[in-house]
Amino acid sequence: MHNRYVVYLRNALGERIAQPLLKFRSIHWVRRLNGVGLCDVVFNWSDYNPDWYAKDRMVELYRYLGSTIELVQIYFIRALEDRTVDTAGVSDRVITWRCLDLNYLLERRIIDAPAGTAGAVKTGCADDVIYEYVDENLGNSAVVARRYTSLLNLTLQGNNSAGATVKHAANYGRLLHVCQQVADKSAQAGTKVRFNIYPTTSNTYVFDVRAYPWGVDRSVGASGQVNVMARTRGLRNIAYSEDATSEVTYAYVGGSGREGDRVVREMEADALGDSPFNRNEAFYPYTNTADTDILDDHARAKLWENKARVNLTAELVDQPGTRYGVDWEIGDVVSVNYRERVFDVEVYAVEGEWDARDEIITARLRYAEQ
Questions:
Q1: Do the Cβ atoms of 347 and 313 come closer than 8 Å?
Q2: CA 34, CA 28: separation in Å to the nearest integer?
Q3: What is the Cα–Cα distance from 240 to 310, expressed in whole angstroms?
Q4: In whole angstroms, what is the distance from residue 28 CA to residue 355 CA?
Q5: CA-based angle 215:303:265, to the nearest 5?
Q6: Which DSSP letter does residue 108 get?
Q7: pLDDT of the residue at 304
Q8: Closest residue by Cα to residue 27 from 76, 105, 99
Q9: Is 190 or 57 the better-scoring residue by pLDDT?
Q10: What residues contact 152, with CB distance under 8 A and at least 6 apart?
Q11: What's the chain's Rg over C-alpha atoms?
Q12: Separation of alpha carbons 127 and 280, rounded Å
């Protein structure tokens, strides 16, 4: 098949520094919500120019979809491997770039605020809280040396009061992990949120936080959209389970203080009444605070973490009716018919692999009730 992908190379200022790179051996890329995606670009040594590589140069990855070409994602080059394999007297030398996507910007920052300060402790809708942490640590509210909004053409969105109300303390935590924790708290309170940094053009970028779903609800029964129904033949690596072996339905959380003066909060899960025997208790220490709101959040998180789960994960095969970029995109909700039951599942990640012979596109699916 013809070369399905085109790569442009940019310097740290976003300026293109080479003609389109077309002679590469293979590409493997991943896009992911609420996490960091990756891209491996592999070259034959005979097609490679050592001057191309520098840390934090940006890989601009394009993919042909029919006769049109679309921007997949922007990735930072973070590692290089130069390997020679000798087989039957023939040497095969290949160069591999390991690249990380724009969400890696969140991994590069911490919450630069002492415990108990307004920069560390925040209360509000989850998307607003995430927005504030990001703005104060890499946006226009950060000191100049920490701003990505000035280094890159990056704008921040998502301050829309769409998530559940949460309270979070995050002094000196890594920004990506803190955003993930706040998103988890919102899910535990009943409203999932998704965040992502993505390109709108080759040199303009947006950080956004949205209430679930990130994309389009294409599940069976959703109105106004083309529905996607995947049956078993269109799926692979299906895993289904129901598991209550580690379920906790009654949580005790011990805050700061000693013995009788210690603050202890209790919380029960809705599933406690599922059977007469289903009061499953656990104690969790959380000794760095006596704030009852934070302790209640911790209890809620532990009940969520240890609840009984119905899990369905699968990979959606890219084929007529379920084409990436045509029938679905990352963050969409689609329906899966499995075990004589219809599950509404989220496309939480997309993975692509290409070499000179073939392209494989895979949607990573997760049951939407998780």
A1: no
A2: 20
A3: 8
A4: 9
A5: 130
A6: T
A7: 86
A8: 99
A9: 57
A10: 14, 205
A11: 23
A12: 32
Residues 65, 67, 68, 71: what is their CA dihedral angle, to the nearest 10 degrees? 50
Q: What is the pLDDT of residue 228?
A: 63
Helix or strand run (H / E) with residue 265: strand 264-268
Question: Angle of helix 175-188 relative to helix 126-138, nearest 10 degrees?
Answer: 170
Amino acid at 298: H
How do residues 215-246 score in pLDDT, each as one tens digit?
A: 998 888 776 555 566 565 677 888 888 889 99
Query: What's the half-sphere exposure (Cβ side, CA atoms, 13 Å) at 181?
Result: 16
Q: Is 306 helix (H, G, I), strand (E, B) or coil?
A: coil
Report yes or no: 192 and 162 within 8 Å, Cβ to Cβ: no
Q: Give the model's pLDDT for residue 1.
A: 42
- What is the distance, to the nearest Å, from the Cα of residue 329 to the centroid of all Cα atoms in its chain? 14
State both tokens at 202.
């080759």
Q: What is the pLDDT of residue 369?
A: 55
Under 8 Å between Cβ of 179 and 129: no
Tokens of 337: 């018919």
Contact criterion met (CB below 8 Å) for 308 and 280? no
Inter-CA distances, 54 with 26, 94, 277, 370, Å: 20, 17, 61, 40
- pLDDT above 90: percentage of residues in the chain: 54
Residue that has been written with the tokens 């829309």 in this structure: 160
Burial 313-332 (b: 16+ CB within 10 A, else e): bbbbebeeebebbebbbbbb
User: Going by C-beta distance under 8 Å and a sequence separation of 6 or more, which residues neighbour residue 272?
Assistant: 249, 250, 278, 279
Residues written for the chain? 370
Q: Are strands 204-211 and 154-156 parallel, antiparallel or unpaired?
A: parallel
Q: In the structure encoding, which two tokens stand for residue 53, read together?
A: 């590589």
Instruction: Supply the pTM of this predicted model.
Output: 0.85
Q: Could you report the per-residue pLDDT of 279-303, keeping only the tens digit for each?
A: 999 999 998 888 898 899 889 889 9
